[in-house]
Design goal:
The structure holds two protein chains of two kinds. Chain A is of the alpha+beta class. Chain A folds into two domains: about 50 residues; about 150 residues, no CATH class. Chain A contains six helices and five strands. Chain A has a five-stranded antiparallel sheet. In chain A, strand 3 and strand 4 form a beta hairpin. Chain B is α+β, with helices and mostly antiparallel strands. In chain B, about 20% of the residues lie in helices and about 40% in strands. Chain B contains one helix and six strands. Chain B starts with a strand and ends with a strand. The chains are: A alpha+beta, B alpha+beta. At the A-B interface, helix 2, strand 4, helix 4 and helix 5 of A face strand 1, strand 3, strand 4, strand 5 and strand 6 of B.
Chain lengths: ~220, ~80
């Protein structure tokens, strides 16, 4: 009695396995795929929330983002920028966060005022404008990516990015402009923001002149 | 003379420092200079004009570097930025 029942149970199990096998062949890879997709979605959510547990940073990769290191790099970059540009330009960057470069940069003198000028922002396009009217001319989108990515990022510190733009522009304006992607104003830099920056610059220059005049009178 | 390189996450690093009047040190400077250019870097020498205006001069070979230059700064070559 036991033997026929056991044989029947084994036969039933084999039949069920044979019936289930084709479905398992299809559904198991699907299950693995779904699990991988869930893991990816979870990592993307972590990135958007800035809560990567492993120390991974979306821009800096698996080597990690170290705010202290970036801060030290920026301080070093600011000192280098300060040593390369003149006192007024350094003060402009320190106080306003951007540099103005008169153009054409290789002109001998600008007795009637420069025909145009550039605003150099860190990691944003160079903006060309007419100083006399404040009219915006173009945006020149240019980057200096270091593909060796020493700490997982190709991005120079802010002040180094401005220094690279300043060196390239004052040394060989045409070459830099030829390498850049040119766009009409407003493509990446908000024109209203630029106008406000130009107003801040005018105010800043006025105050500097007044301070200089005041110190001369006091002397 | 010092050869400096702008570096992400660090600021500038000193690649090599040497006296142009000492042949062995000059050779080291030349070798480091060529290595950076071969790696695709641009090289610039910050200068000051007689009227006090500061600017930079791009150098494409070591012969272009003024003998009295204090430093040469290497930085990644410009690329058209991404149009977002």
């Amino acid at each position: 009695m036991l033997l026929p029942l056991s044989a029947a149970a084994i036969m039933a199990a084999v039949l069920l396995w044979e019936l289930a096998l084709p479905r398992l062949r299809v559904s198991l890879p699907q299950l693995a795929h779904e699990l991988a997709a869930r893991r990816r979605a979870s990592r993307a959510t972590d990135r958007s929330r800035g809560t990567l547990a492993s120390g991974e940073h979306p821009r800096f990769g698996p080597q990690g983002y170290d705010p202290g290191r970036e801060l030290r790099a920026e301080q070093r970059a600011r000192e280098l920028l300060r040593s390369c540009v003149n006192e007024e330009e350094w003060a402009m960057y320190r106080d306003l966060g951007f540099l103005r470069v008169w153009a054409p940069s290789r002109a001998v003198t600008h007795t009637d005022g420069a025909p145009y000028a550039y605003l150099l922002y860190p990691h944003r396009p160079i903006v060309a404008y007419i100083p006399q009217t404040g009219a915006l001319l173009n945006e020149y989108c240019v980057a200096f990516p270091d593909e060796t990515r020493p700490y997982g990022s190709a991005r120079l510190p802010d002040a180094d990015d401005v220094l690279a733009k300043w060196m390239a522009l004052t040394a060989d304006e045409r070459r830099l402009i030829a390498d850049a992607n040119m766009h009409l104003p407003g493509r990446q830099v908000d024109p209203q923001q630029v106008r406000e920056d130009l107003a801040r610059l005018a105010r800043w220059e006025r105050e500097r002149l007044e301070r200089a005049a005041g110190s001369v009178r006091a002397a | 003379m010092r050869l400096l390189r702008l570096k992400p996450g660090h600021g500038e690093i000193v690649l090599v420092e040497g006296d142009m009047e000492v042949p062995e040190q000059e050779r080291e400077l030349i070798e480091a200079f060529r290595r950076e250019l071969d790696a695709g870097m641009w090289a610039a020498v910050p200068t000051e004009r007689t009227d006090g205006r500061r600017e930079a001069e791009m150098v494409r070979s070591f012969d272009d570097v003024p003998r009295d230059a204090e430093r040469v700064i290497f930085f990644p070559r410009a690329a058209g930025g991404a149009g977002r």
